Give the backbone structure.
Amino acid sequence: MLSLPASVVCYSLCPFLGPSDLLNLRVTNSRLLEVLHDEAESEELWKVMLIRDFGFQKDAKTDDWWQQTLRVEFPIPSCSSVFGIDPGMESPLLDAKSAFDSWKVWLRASRRFFEDLPNGEDAKQLIHGPYFLRAARMWQQIYSWCNHNPSLGTMIKQSFQRGLRFKDWDSRYRSEKGLQAAQAIYAYCGGQKVAMYSIDGFDGLFGGYQAYNYYCNSHLAPPGKPLGDNKHMVVSQCIFSNMNRMPKIFAVNMESGCLSLLTPSQPKTRAIKDTSVAPEEELLIWMEEFTRRLTAGMIGTGTMGSTPQDPASITLYPRWTNPPPILLPEQRVPHCSYSVTRGVEVVASAIYAPQAVESFGFIYSIRIRLVTPTSRDSRTGDHGDSSNYMSPSERGFETCQLHMRQWQITNFESGHTDSVHGEGVIGMFPILREGGYTDGGESFDGAFQYQSCSGPIQKGSFGGSLTFVPGCIDQPTGPPFEVELKPFLLDNSPAILY
Amino acid sequence: MQDEGNGIIRLRSCDDKVFELTESAAEISELLKDSPREEDDQVTEIDIVRVASPCLEKVVEFMKHYDKEKMKEIPTPLGASTFNEVMDQPWYQDFVSDEKVNRDMLFSMLSAANFLGIKPLLELTCLKVTFQITGKNAEEIRKHLHLPELTPGRGGGQGPRRAQLDF
């Protein structure tokens, strides 16, 4: 045995040996220890083992694809994940020093995840490394966002339940291939506690929106019994919707992993439009994309209402202003539009609400304020490059009041444009001042924001103008003027549904 | 022009015994395939200096049989928990059975297969060794394979540098 060349041991013999056998063989003899660790072939061996045992794939572009692995610590009661880590306090990731160290950690992670199964089922099972790595990275970002957005972020963190090991899943379904990605995700967080509506805020991780008296805020659901068809498991549920015939549920097909939106009035809708995506990864992709948008500020903290005092929530109205690349040039309308006229800034966007398609298709949110010297551009924060600020003398008024609205809603498919006009917005006529506004005698700080709905439409644009009066309507200090609302996109087939 | 499959190759062991096999059987070995052949109708004789006759005899037997019945490839992961379940071809099971082949011979054949570049024989012998190791702890493996704990010369005098893993 000892006279065999290292290459034979590493490339021909070891691939047949299971993880436990490899570990035992390693320590039988000092020469074998060298062969398996110090010889040139050994790094290659452990990389092959990473691929064989934990489902990794060699990356043609980088040589250190094996380097990032999970941190696995001794579990203590206060930590939230199965691996003994609290992602809110410390990184769930670790850089391994060698392929063997990486493999060793994945083995330890597998043993932790599959702990305590009856009849010693755990002995041989190994986790699918790439899913767990992606889940760890994702949770790290989610917790980081929560830490940077206290108040709402703290509420959300407090709702997270402890991570789940394999044995915590229903034994009838836990071996289904479609649940593998979910199990990686839930190892770090077992879902959110079902919350009551609170005036402090809505703590659904997946956020929501509000218009009139329709509220929707979605949670990461703890894994429960499958739905009546015994095929789907709910992963996201709208926890508060006072129009109960419009619940919004995202569920995973336990066999295939496909993620779908289920609503009573619509046929099942795939959450991810692109069907070339590997179905068993859909939940991971969906949550990763959500996290990306949250971290990049494309969606973020808002209120469920029209005043800053209304309960906070993650709101899904898009905040990005780049037009989507897929539309025809004449239809290059951004998801979120930005306009400034005479110091009045208007930011607007819409979100498609498929569960409410019978009553309305889109909820749009319009945010209006007077630009201030310290807060020049809502898109870039307080110190925007472009100075849209105009002093009261430059713009010709101290305050101004919203009087009328004129909308043009174009349907791209038919080419037809609807014109809508009326007084005020949702019955409100806010008076804008620098730093806040007044409505109905009450004074508020911050931008004036309101949500409303737009009827069913294929795909189109929503734009127009608002008529303002300098001073106030009862006592104008100048002639009325039009403030542009640049068109924003109404997209009823987004690439990913939330 | 030499007839591809029917020519005879002679292999001479390090202890001067000669074994004959057909060209097509010999080509299973990467080394023999690449070895130069004698011209015209001359029989090619190749010296296999690293392999002794008892082992070479077995290797030639393998190559001759493989020419007639190919051995199935061994999958990784193995997919079964006994040797006979993984390798279900009776001739091959018998070829490396404990009665026919002792531990030393098994490792000699493994080495020879590596040297001669006979992939199926290498796989078969490795598989056999695998099932001698699997399920045993370090001490049992050492006993079974007659391994000293320390190999003199390299790092002798020191224990294995890395402790058994602790989960």
In short: The two ends of chain A are 59 Å apart (CA to CA). The CA atoms of residues 327 and 385 of chain A lie 28 Å apart. Chain A is about 20% helix and 25% strand. Chain A touches chain B through 30 residues (CB under 8 Å).
